[in-house]
Amino acid sequence: MTSGNLASWKKAVGDKIEAGDVIAEVETDKATVDYEAVDEGIIAKILKPEGTQDITVGTPIAAGIALATIAGTGPGGRIIAADVLEQAAKPAVAAAAPAAEMKAPAVEMPPGAAFVDLPNTQIRKVTAKRMVENKNGDIPHYYLTMEVEMDALMEMRASVNAAQDKVKTSVNDYVIKACAYALKEVPACNSQWTDEYIRQFAAADISVAVNTDRGLLTPIIFSADTKSVVEISQDVKSLAGKAKAGKLKPAEFIGGTFTVSNLGMTGVKQFTAIINGPQACILAVGSAEKKLVPGPDQATPFLTKTVMAVTLSSDHRIVDGAIGAEWLKAFKKAIENPVLLLL
């Protein structure tokens, strides 16, 4: 993030603040977050009003006065309003904060209008820039598609949901866990490219694409390889809710070693996704559908199976075609033998 917009102030001029107090709400290029004070003091002056857009990171947005610098003239040496105003008139050290973004207002099409211009949110601007860089510039993409049978997983999911009331797991929760399993089997796909070296990660931190009114966000299921499917399901529900409400913290979406983008619930059969750089891979997940497949013998020439198509987009600098195919085989193994996801 290099710039953004200021969403709202939580403190006013003259308010006393303690370390950890939320003084403003800012929207980064990925989410709206609370900006906390790092020291005690008093807000002396608001330099940037709510709604200010495209503020460069490091630009002062408020002037603060440290309590230790104010000589109180009130009863018992207490600091009163006049003391703050007197100190504020002196040169003050400006407190810098990241800027934030206002949510683009809904715009209705005026009667008879040929078009309407909708302002881009900061998230959409940054996402658009990164998509172009990732697809047309830095990352040489290639794609591998494989079908996986889902019947055994669907049965196990139904059993897991019936056996506990903690959380109702979704198919995507098992997909995330299967991705983590495959990354441990084929760690080359759990990597990032640099000109000097390839960095391979120990943990499978799975970014999950979430569509919001502000744009596409990718909250992270950290260490998915060590979590149960139920724990993954709880994380997904919590993070998706925060993403849609614009309340993700930077630590919840910055990073990730692999991304899952699932459009299966919309009925999309198959698609390809743009890699979420600097990650090496992203898995595009389509919908599950009934399909006739060859049977085991002449007596049963055909069987009806539930099949799902997945497409792996890979960075060819890191993941050669054979490695990508190996990863898909490991993913297929985990999905079609879902007991592996419970170990």
UniProtKB/TrEMBL annotation:
SUPFAM superfamilies per the UniProt record, alphabetical: CoA-dependent acyltransferases, Single hybrid motif
EC top class named in words: transferase
Pfam family, one: E3_binding
GO molecular function annotations of the record: acyltransferase activity
Taxonomy, superkingdom: Eukaryota
Coiled-coil zones: none
Keyword check for Transferase: yes
Cofactor(s) required, per the database record: (R)-lipoate
Gene3D superfamilies: 2.40.50.100, Chloramphenicol acetyltransferase-like domain, E3-binding domain
One annotated GO biological process: pyruvate decarboxylation to acetyl-CoA
Name of the protein in its database record: Dihydrolipoamide acetyltransferase component of pyruvate dehydrogenase complex
Species of the source: Chrysochromulina tobinii
Lineage, top ranks: Eukaryota, Haptista, Haptophyta, Prymnesiophyceae, Prymnesiales
